[in-house]
Amino acid sequence: MAQQKEASTFGMWVFLVTEIMMFGGVFVAYMIYRLKYYEGFVAGSTSIDVTWGFINTLVLICSSLTMALAVSAAQRGVVRLQKIFIIFTMALGLVFLVIKGIEYHQKWVEHHVPGGTWQTFDPQDIHQDLIKEGKTPQAATEIAHQTEIFFCFYFAMTGLHALHMIIGLILMTWLLLRVSRREFGPDYYTPVELGGLYWHFVDIVWIYLFPLLYLINRTHGKI
Amino acid sequence: MSTVAQTPERVMPDRHYLNDNYGIRSWLLTKDHKRIAILYLISISVVFFIAGIFASLIRLHLLTPNGALFTPDTYNKMFTMHGVMMVFFFLVPSVPAVLGNFVIPLMVGAKDLAFPKINLMSWYIYIVGVTFAMAAIVSGGVDTGWTFYTPLSSGFLHTNVIVMVVGVIFAGFSSIFTGLNFIVTVHRMRAPGLTWGRLPLMVWSNYATSLIMILATPVLAITLILLGLERGFHIGIFDPKLGGDPVLFQHMFWFYSHPAVYIMILPGMGVISEIIPCFSRKRIFGYSFVAFSSIAIAVFGFVVWAHHMFVAGISVYSAMVFSLLSYAVAIPSAVKVFNWTATMYKGSISMDTPMLYAMGFIGLFTIGGLTGLFLAALGLDVHIHDTYFVIAHFHFIMVGGMVMAYLGGIHFWWPKMTGRLYPEAVAKLAALITFIGFNLTFFPQFVLGYLGQPRRYAIYAPEFQVLNVLSTAGASVLAVGFILPALYLTWSLKYGEVAGDNPWRATGLEWQTTSPPPTHNFHETPVVTTEAYHYGSESEEEVRVVP
Amino acid sequence: MTEGAHPTHKVYYLVFLALVIGTVLTWRIAFVDLTFFGISFNPEVAVLIACTKATLVILFFMHVRYSSKLTMLTVAAGFFWLLIMISLDLCDYLTRGAVKPL
Amino acid sequence: MQSNLPLFPEQASTVAGQVDALYLFLILLTTFFSLLIAVLIIYFAIKYRRSTGRKAEQIHGSTLLEIVWTVIPLGISMVIFVWGAALYFHIQRPPGDALEIYGVAKQWMWKFQYPEGQREINSLHVPLGRPVKVTLISEDVIHSFFVPAFRIKQDVLPNRYRMAWFTATTPGTYHLFCSQYCGTNHSEMVGEVTVMKPEDFTAWLESGKAEGSLASMGEKLFQQFGCTTCHRPDSGARGPNLEGVYGRPVRLQDNRVVIADDNYIRNHVLNPGTEVVSGFQPIMPTFRGVITEQGMQQIIAYIKSLSEQTGQPLNNRTDPTKIRDNEVPNVQQQMQQDNQNQKPSGKQP
Question: What is the DSSP string of B394-456?
């Protein structure tokens, strides 16, 4: 049994390494474009409401804590606590997604959703803000144009992350079912442990996404 | 044949993995790595023959300079589908998912892979991928080229690119799960006494392959997802109209697709490292060098990808860095070739079919590898990049190397998989036909490439015709060489001689169990007391399994 | 080998506290101009804090601190390969146009 | 002119011989090692065949041999690397005095423009013995400019200029191929490169119909788009004077210094809000989607011509501004604050 658990945990880590590389690919692309279109990235980033991002980071950190406690409860074989903590984790995950939804809606209303499919991208407000900051109209037009590629990254990265959150929630539901069937105890709690590893990983991705997308340059200092 | 005659008893075991259960359900829901390997064998054979038909049509079309069969549009679809099917759905899973799946648990003395359910899942994911790819083909085909370069693929073509891309992403996840399974199995499931230094080289090379699978494939997935977003929703990260850089797509694509070349060739090298000692009755020469060269290839393979992009618009300095690193990956490959050759020295060599394939592999891989030096030489690559020289080079590695190794491996382990022997004389003939047909097909393409015929041309300049006709002639010979094994191997399932447990008198753990093996592989957990390939030692004829 | 050992709840709460502090710090410090020698160090500081937070999560919440060397090696390999990808990509992008005509 | 079974492409440029030398060296190397391995395995397979009843002699390995066959290939490959890299460096660095031809690739044709204003499609005429630099850009997907007889190839990208250069050595007509798959008629995106003796080339140029030199066409566009409103040599100009700018270092607002080459100029016309020259306000509007790639090349040729004939007045003004090269061009011109309120000149026509 211990051998099995060790193998499963190791397998999960190997899988998480593939996840690192997968998010890594889009992070590399982000980095290269950020170097190239710094002003556009700053303008795009500044247009996002940092409060929501901040709250969401806290939400995810809390969910990570409850997840860790759920694993600990499973290890000690306390079924009631397992249930409570997994439900907490799921609730926090849902809160995260709802907030993400609010943010996406905001972006939609502000015409910040990129892509020719919807034909809505028209960052008037960013243009206005840039002019308020003392940019010339022409420069503002330019920078606003550049923000489209920033928003491509914003939606691709947060979308991919949100997809992972949804998969995480499905995993949690499955775990909850198994917990209520009292399947886990000190001898066997590998699925909870693995679910925990996955959940923490998704949290880590967000820990990077928050500063990279929301806080590129809020002080307008030089590069 | 002499080896077979010496085998004392040749009877089928009463119960083995093939007759343990009957019915379609027992196959489709199996968690037995051997049955999953057979499922993979059947599915990738189908893919191989479909992709092979595309290849034959391509060669037929190129008989005349203006194209004998198709419009350019259809031709573009042909080579795209040939490339996609062969690369993602045949070469990548071929040795790992079929032979590796079958023999690795046996070789490490385990009952199964670490995660049997994930193994089955990987096959289903593969099948979903194939289904998407087939859907893309049936609904009109795709004409992006297997490299899916943007902005052509994302904005300019009107075919079902997204369906194909989804299929490839599925195939990628399938190979991630296979790799994950192998890594955990090799780390955690080795039999008592089977230290890293005693592992068969097939295990080493599949381990190295798995490293690449799990580290590189996710980057392909994200790259193709981004491509899909760009095509589907115009969320264009590579779109020049939004200020995107199409060269970045190439960077990300080749970050997977170059190491993928090693996913394709490393397992083949493992097969060769098994066959040569067995048919030379000799220990492998320089075991640890062959073993570590696999890891070295896997690691160096990650830092050379931009040698596909020397004329694509990367900086001159980075081109130099990548060229330099590309030579680093050539060294371990050379070390392997020299060690295989040295293994044959003063051996006791019998030229059975697997050995013929192995010798063919060494010769063709040497040429393929050395022509790689041409392509890594910066100034020369400028001329031969994207010409038939590249085509010839990678077919020497992929077909001359990998497919030869795959066929060699299939012949080598066929008795183990089915319990029966194939007709040796026909098999030798097929190996010879394959070798001749292969050289006739692809050697002229080196010349064509240096003359300047660009790849992916439906219509070509008239002075290239003679060489193209030669190549097409070779392709028809090659096709015979591939169809023959399919026929006589199928025939042998019913009519082949009973092989016995160890027809080659090989030393690996997989030969110490019955042929075909029981569902749980070993009746008793084997304990390993010797190094791999202990040919010629006193205990050679003894069973390596100590109860 | 202490494989499978888990930290105490006290450790969990301490790590949680550190993460919250890190988050607040990231948020607050983003509005402080950290320009020295004409270069803004805001992004570096933000990423540094993020790395610290990620390390804490990996070591304690994900129990790597209490796991085998193999697990540690696996995690390290993941980040190392990411580094390979980043550095070689930048090797191209940062030196583009650096070769002048004769 | 072509044999039925050519084995070697024609050599028609100065680098062709050098590339072929490396190629031949590698062929010798490949032949040697392939034969070595092939002969060895066949010899072993016969000499040590089992049917003679021999037993294998067990040899574990030899660290010395391993070192030998690691170091020798390493040494050889370093020679190839240095050789190939030197050649590549040569191929990537066009000489300064080259004849500059501009090319645009699109699905599925090549369009070329000569400095004297002649234009061609799928055909390129070049003089013998003179370096020729082709500056290339694509209107759509990635193409690749490939002349086998010259042994040169360069991918043509949709968003930045790439250069290919060569010095032709043999008169004749050679293939021009697109070697990067670019869609349906990729294989029909072919053309011809004709190498002519210098006097024939001059005659050919004169016979060609041209509406004026590339620079003069560029000048027309320059006025048509209203660029002259700001880019003037006088002190009241709101944009930098473009005389003597081309090919020189330019200091940007963020203190970086870049070379004002073709790519910089194109990028600046299309995305003027960034990489603004120090001392100026970012008030230039974008010309994205307004100027064709060929028009852009004409404008660049015009800006370039302003550097070649320094001392000539710009826009018929009699008072040319002195250029301080190596430093920031035109820093002396300070912007007036009221520019922000003014409607930018040079809007789209």
Answer: HHIIIIIIIIHHHHHHHHHHHHHHHSB---HHHHHHHHHHHHHHHHHHHHHHHHHHHHT-BSS
